[in-house]
Write a sequence for this structure.
């Protein structure tokens, strides 16, 4: 099974990497995004403000990590899935000798290879441009990688849930935007969650998306002790299970009522 | 010239009507564009939980600046949206050859094919932001101010549209959906905030090299009466210069153009 997933991933990654020039432009866009953030915060710090115990170097590092992690977390399968459903490709996909969930997991891994390359290059360029803090310890860096890897799985099942709605609406645009809005606010992409007003912090703490961006960066800075990190990882496993079950139920229901174009 | 402009608008009306056929897509495009902008507004709001001004601009002033940029963007989106996918939609499929045969400048035909569902979203959001912030800042909304806002909004839209048109010629060589134009367009984000926060390099970039700041910052400074500024009077001149460059670059690209067809 793993071989099949990896074969699909390889195929998908090859297709993506064919458009190398596009990848360069994505990196360029990410750098513009960081530039805006860095200069806004610089203007605030220049007045001698100390914001909730974060130094300017930490804030800069925070945004560089956010933008480098952004493609890894938020480029997903939803566009591919939506197009497949709209154009009737879904019929072939359902008859594949590999299950639908595994097939798309392969595609997700393929995308991941692309996004990791974009993420790493963005990180290196921005580190040179703006300066960056290194991870607090090697162990924390390993935990950082583990938490992010699990996040990809959490987000994958969330994407499946969102994608299932395309069976009914035939258009995935609306829900895709909804997904991005939720992700960018409640994962801490727009700002560190500790700077949010209290009621937004409460919502962010109950949703699983905080552990996609904010928590791994806190681990990178060494703000969480080992017990807390283990708790985070356990929580992620529980979320994966919950989202998997929801995705499975919704998907099975949707497939039964599927009316595909041209079929 | 007049004939070209008339033709452009008749092309545009035709393509907008074509788009209106798909009402659901329109609605989704509009709502999602507002949602994207709201993410950014949440960011600004969170920042102002920790400071009372950014480079001397308070929350209301910053949102006014943001709204003015949105207004310019909505005009760009409405009129020049087709600059995005020249390569994919026209060049690769050979459709551009039929456009060349028309007795009108190809640029007019291409720009007239703009169909966008997101412009209305930008427009609604910008009007809400501008009006509510003017009221909050106790700036009296006179007829003169409304005319000024519309005038500079339209010019701002033409400035950004002109910049997009210049870079859209990349489609002649890449034959695909134009990520180049998108990347250049993304630079407008820099001009959503007061230029005082940037270093000299970025200031020069967004006022002289790619003058996005004239679509937002300079009009905003004028409405807010922060200081007497005469720079706003050169906005029409800048618009004209940008378009002279855009048309020349296009004519140059047309000479180099080789059809993909047989």
């Amino acid at each position: 099974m793993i071989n099949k997933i990896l074969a699909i991933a390889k195929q998908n990654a090859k297709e993506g990497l064919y458009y190398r020039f596009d990848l360069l432009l994505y990196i360029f866009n990410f750098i513009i995004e960081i530039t805006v953030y860095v200069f806004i915060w610089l203007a605030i710090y220049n007045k001698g403000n100390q914001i909730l115990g974060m130094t300017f170097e930490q804030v800069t590092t925070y945004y560089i990590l956010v933008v480098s992690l952004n493609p890894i977390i938020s480029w997903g399968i939803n566009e591919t899935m939506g197009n497949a459903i709209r154009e009737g490709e879904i019929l072939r996909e359902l008859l594949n000798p590999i299950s639908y969930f595994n097939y798309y997991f392969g595609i997700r891994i393929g995308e991941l290879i692309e996004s990791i390359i974009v993420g790493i290059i963005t990180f290196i360029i921005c580190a040179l441009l703006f300066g960056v803090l290194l991870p607090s310890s090697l162990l924390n860096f390993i935990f950082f990688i583990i938490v992010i890897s699990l996040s990809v799985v959490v987000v994958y099942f969330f994407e499946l849930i969102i994608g299932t709605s395309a069976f009914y609406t035939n258009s995935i645009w609306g829900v895709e935007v909804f997904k991005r809005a939720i992700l960018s606010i409640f994962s801490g992409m727009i700002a560190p969650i500790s700077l949010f007003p209290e009621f937004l912090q409460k919502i962010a703490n109950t949703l699983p998306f905080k552990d996609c961006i904010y928590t791994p960066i806190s681990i990178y800075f060494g703000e969480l002790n080992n017990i807390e990190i283990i708790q985070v990882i356990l929580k992620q496993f529980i979320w994966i299970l919950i989202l998997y079950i929801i995705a499975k139920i919704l998907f099975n229901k949707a497939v039964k009522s599927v009316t595909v174009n041209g079929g | 010239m007049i004939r070209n402009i008339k033709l452009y608008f008749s092309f545009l009306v035709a393509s907008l009507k074509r788009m209106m056929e798909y009402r659901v897509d329109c609605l989704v495009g509009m709502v999602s564009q507002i949602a994207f902008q709201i993410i950014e507004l949440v960011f600004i709001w969170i920042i102002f939980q920790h400071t009372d001004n950014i480079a001397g601009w308070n929350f209301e002033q910053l949102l006014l600046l943001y709204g003015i940029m949105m207004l310019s963007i909505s005009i760009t989106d409405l009129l020049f949206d087709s600059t995005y996918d020249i390569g994919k939609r026209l060049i690769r499929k050979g459709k551009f050859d039929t456009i060349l045969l028309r007795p009108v400048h190809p640029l007019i035909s291409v720009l007239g094919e703009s169909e966008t569902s997101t412009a209305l979203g930008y427009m609604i959001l910008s009007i809400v932001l501008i009006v509510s912030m003017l009221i909050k800042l106790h700036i009296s909304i006179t007829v003169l101010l409304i005319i000024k806002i519309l005038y500079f909004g339209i010019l701002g839209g033409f400035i950004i549209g002109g910049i997009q048109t210049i870079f859209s010629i990349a489609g002649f060589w890449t034959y695909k959906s134009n990520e180049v134009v998108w990347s250049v367009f993304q630079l407008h984000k820099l001009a959503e905030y007061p230029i005082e926060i940037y270093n000299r390099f970025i200031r020069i970039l967004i006022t002289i090299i790619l003058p996005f700041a004239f679509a937002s910052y300079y009009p905003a400074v004028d409405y807010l009466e922060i200081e007497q500024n005469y720079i706003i009077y050169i906005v029409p001149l800048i618009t004209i210069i940008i378009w002279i460059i855009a048309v020349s670059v296009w004519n140059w690209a047309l000479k180099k153009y080789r059809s993909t067809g047989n």
